[in-house]
Each structure stands twice: as structure tokens, then as C-alpha cells.
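From the methods appendix. Each design record in this collection lists the discretized structure first, followed by the designed amino acid sequence. Records were kept in a plain field format so they could be parsed without special tools. The example shown here is representative of the layout used throughout.

RECORD:
C-ALPHA CELLS (152 positions):
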């Protein structure tokens, strides 16, 4: 296929639209979380992912799984965990069965902040999607996002 192939051009335009939608949503939520709760989108996402862990086999995520869930490298995730731990929102401890493993849990303060921030996140997401739906290029993507039923 040539670089001017209509299929490639359409694919590229679709990717640009998806990237634009993500950027708009991310920026809107970032502003809302920062101003209302002193949290970044990444910090919120990390607290959310870690709050869904449970006790028992397979209940805790390894750092690589956490990094994949928040779409960061392992080193960036470790730095993010450290920042939130320094704020008293997370705690780390050694795995009982594998002393090389380190678990990260959300503290009570972290759970409280997450509960306070969740409505802000949800409201900002709704606002960003509603605004993006006004753009004819983004409207089909917004509808697709709204129709997704992804298990948590």
C-alpha cells in the first residue's frame, strides 16, 4: 500500500480522532481532579486500580500488572506509588509467601480521597464526552465509548 492509499488515510484520520478524544477527556478530567482533590489522572487511576484488590489468592497485583493497568512503565509506576505513599495514601509491604514480592495497598486516607474524587472524575468524564459529541468527527467515537460494557 502506498502512503496515499485511501485506507491508510482513513485509518490515520481515525487514529487522530481517537487520540484527540482521549486528549480532550484526559485534560478535562485532569483539571477537575487537580483543582478539586489535588490528584492527577494517573494518581486517581492508580488509587482506583489498587482499591479493587482483595485478600486471598490472586487478590493483589504485582507491580507489572499495576503498571499495565495504569498504562505506565514499571519505573514510572514505582515513582507514582512512592509519591502517593509519601502523601499517606498508599502503603507497601512484603508478600507473606514470597519475600521478594512487594504489595501496595490503599490506606484509609487513600480510600477516603478516592471516594471523594470519584464523583468529580465521573462528572468530568461526562462533561468531556458531552462536549466531544458536539464535534461530528468525534461523535461516533463518543457513542462507541458510551456503548462499551467492559467488566471492571
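DESIGN:
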Amino acid at each position: 500500500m502506498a502512503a496515499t492509499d485511501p485506507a491508510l488515510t482513513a485509518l490515520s484520520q481515525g487514529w487522530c480522532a481517537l487520540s484527540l478524544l482521549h486528549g480532550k477527556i484526559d485534560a478535562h478530567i485532569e483539571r477537575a481532579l487537580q483543582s478539586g482533590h489535588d490528584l492527577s489522572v494517573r494518581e486517581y487511576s492508580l488509587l482506583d486500580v489498587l482499591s479493587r484488590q482483595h485478600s486471598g489468592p490472586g487478590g493483589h497485583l504485582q507491580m507489572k500488572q499495576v503498571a499495565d493497568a495504569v498504562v505506565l512503565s514499571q519505573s514510572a509506576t514505582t515513582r507514582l506509588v512512592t509519591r502517593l505513599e509519601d502523601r499517606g495514601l498508599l502503603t507497601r509491604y512484603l508478600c507473606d509467601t514470597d519475600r521478594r514480592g512487594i504489595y501496595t495497598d490503599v490506606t484509609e486516607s487513600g480510600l477516603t480521597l478516592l471516594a471523594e474524587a470519584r464523583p468529580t472524575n465521573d462528572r468530568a468524564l461526562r462533561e468531556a464526552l458531552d462536549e466531544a459529541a458536539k464535534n461530528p468527527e468525534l461523535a461516533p467515537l463518543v457513542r462507541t465509548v458510551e456503548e462499551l460494557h467492559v467488566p471492571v
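APPENDIX NOTE: The chain is about 65% helix and 5% strand.
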